[in-house]
Automatic annotation (TrEMBL):
Cross-referenced SUPFAM superfamilies: Trypsin-like serine proteases
One GO molecular-function entry: serine-type endopeptidase activity
Pfam family, one: Trypsin
InterPro entries: Peptidase_S1_PA, Peptidase_S1_PA_chymotrypsin, Ser/Thr_Proteases_Immune/Dev, Trypsin_dom, TRYPSIN_HIS
Protein's organism: Cuerna arida
Record-linked PROSITE patterns: TRYPSIN_DOM, TRYPSIN_HIS
Cross-referenced Gene3D superfamilies: Trypsin-like serine proteases
Name this protein carries in UniProt: Peptidase S1 domain-containing protein
Domain Peptidase S1 as annotated: residue spans: 68-244
Keyword entries, A-Z: Disulfide bond, Glycoprotein, Signal
Length: 244
């Protein structure tokens, strides 16, 4: 393998593993922030109205099949907030999927800052191009299961990439938890049974939920086998993890 190809493969291997850790980190970070800011009422923040507050956020609107014990494949439409990030080569316009993110309202996707790069001078020679919403099987433009078909996958361009201001900095205030990024989409997204926003924690929940030692479910298209060679699934996968 060439040096540049090896770098790309290594980077996207990490990106397919790290979203799982990132999903748990966001939850821990949110809880730690809430627990340490007893006097802070996030509902008073000027951007609070931008967060989706419908009581059905974070829920699939579709009837789901019964799971087999130990199963890894998610049901079609089970995680309608999952966004798949797509990168484009600066040299030949080739495209490659990498990170995942979560739709948090009709205009923004939350993901990891290390997934957000579009500088033509970066060593990988590619940049973040757009996101896919309503994705399930990456080999299909339109997914169907037992006669039930989802709408065509929605591809949405990115208007602005907003990284945490301390991400990548060596400042005293910089923390590993600064590894998050907001993607502002070029248009508002219309919600469907297969495209829905996830819920975000609020200060009101600080006395109601403690995530430590809880079993949470994460989803994505990450690596499911490392050796003898890495293997990536074509359908959305889910994994239970214990928060520590």
């Amino acid at each position: 393998l060439s040096s540049s190809k090896s770098k790309v493969e290594l980077f996207f291997f990490k990106m397919n593993v790290l979203p799982i850790l990132f999903a748990v980190r966001v939850l821990l970070m949110a809880e730690a922030f809430i627990l340490n800011q007893d006097k802070l009422d996030l509902t008073k923040h000027k951007n609070w109205p931008l967060v989706y507050h419908d009581e059905n956020c974070g829920r699939s609107k579709l009837p789901l099949a019964r799971k087999s014990i130990g199963g890894r494949k998610a049901d079609m439409g089970e995680y309608p907030w999952i966004a798949r990030l797509v990168y484009r080569s600066f040299s030949d316009d080739g495209e490659l999927g990498g990170c995942a993110g979560s739709l948090i309202n009709g205009r923004y996707v939350l993901t990891a800052a290390h997934c957000c790069f579009d500088d033509p001078k970066n060593e990988l020679g590619m940049g973040l191009a757009y996101v896919k919403l309503g994705e399930y099987d990456i080999h299909h433009i339109k997914d169907c299961f037992r006669g039930n078909c989802a709408p065509r996958v929605l591809e949405v361009g990115i208007e602005n990439i907003i990284k945490h201001p301390l991400y990548g900095k060596k400042a005293k205030e910089a923390l590993p938890s600064n590894d998050f990024c907001l993607l502002r989409l070029i248009q508002d997204v219309e919600f469907t049974d297969y495209i829905q926003p996830v819920c975000l924690p609020s200060a009101i929940e600080k006395d109601e939920k403690n995530l430590y030692d809880m079993i949470l479910t994460v989803a994505g298209w990450g690596t499911i086998e490392n050796f003898p060679q890495s293997r990536h699934p074509h359908a959305l996968q889910e994994l239970d993890v214990v928060v520590k």
